[in-house]
Amino acid sequence: MLPPYAKPHLSFAQQVALLQQRGLAVTNQWQAERHLARIGYYRLKDYWYPLRQSRTAIRPDGSRYADVLEDFRPGTSFTQAVDLYVFDKQLRMLMADAIERIEVALRVDVAHTLGKRDAFAHRDTNFLDPKRSIAPRGPQTRHQKWLARADEAEQRSRADWVEEFRKNYSPPMPIWMAVETWDFGALSHLIEMAHPSDRVAISRKYGLSNSEVLSSWVKTLSYVRNVCAHHSAHCF
Questions:
Q1: C-alpha distances in angstroms, 98 versus 128, 221, 223?
Q2: Above 60 in pLDDT, residue 33?
Q3: How far apart are CA 93 and CA 75, in angstroms?
Q4: Which domain of life does the UniProt lineage start with (predicted)?
Q5: 72 - beta bridge partners?
Q6: Ramachandran angles phi, psi of 163, nearest 5°
Q7: Amino acid 233: pLDDT
Q8: Whole-Å CA distances, 42 to 22, 45, 108
Q9: pLDDT at position 234, please?
């Protein structure tokens, strides 16, 4: 049985002292305390993690792994961790801006391409990939599971134009409206389930001859977008 957490609360000054005790150089005590007060110890911890010492350890099965220690490598400083945080923040903002442009364009492409087939093509597997859309996902098909997620997103939306639709029409929304209520993940899954010829048509707009490449790229971009949006220390 694991022990309960029992470490005491530390002031920002005590946090700096703890880091110094572990070998992290701090040239400006006041500034270090301000960074911890503004960013937080455990958010910055991700960025000083690669500055910590490590040693090779052996698991019971004989395999080796890097055991990361609490002490820092000689010559490392608090400023280096903050610099990594700032770099990651700036990279995350650049990535988010670029992905947003792609995401917006893809929403239009998906709505326009599938909408040619039917205003509600996203709701009917007859207009989608006949194999992928009906693939089992537990007790439901892939499309059924996706549609429940898409409908939930539509119901949560409080956009003015959505409210106007609700006042004047019964659900469901046509794809060119509904697409704007979904998150990027839902959009990426619909692209994968789209009719093969529609996937090809969308892919060609981006200079791709293989629609599978587009699906792979969009899934990757969706993952990176989530990493950036949730301020995870994985962009650098």
A1: 29, 10, 14
A2: yes
A3: 30
A4: Bacteria
A5: 52
A6: -60, -40
A7: 59
A8: 16, 5, 40
A9: 53
Whether the link from the prior residue into 172 is cis, omega within 30° of 0, is yes
DSSP assignment of the chain: -PPPP-PPP--HHHHHHHHHHTT-B-S-HHHHHHHHHHH-HHHHHHHHGGGEEEEEEE-TTS-EEEEEEEEEPTT-BHHHHHHHHHHHHHHHHHHHHHHHHHHHHHHHHHHHHHHHH-TTGGG-GGGB-TTTTT-EETTEEHHHHHHHHHHHHHHH---HHHHHHHHH-PSPPPHHHHGGGS-HHHHHHHHHHB-HHHHHHHHHHTT-S-HHHHHHHHHHHHHHHHHHHTT-TT--
Stated pTM of the model = 0.80
Count of CB atoms situated within 10 Å of the CB of 176: 15
In the chain, % of residues over pLDDT 70: 97
pLDDT for 232 beyond 80: no
Q: What average pLDDT does the segment 43-58 reach?
A: 95
Residue written as token pair 């110890």: 41
Are the beta carbons of 215 and 178 closer than 8 angstroms? no
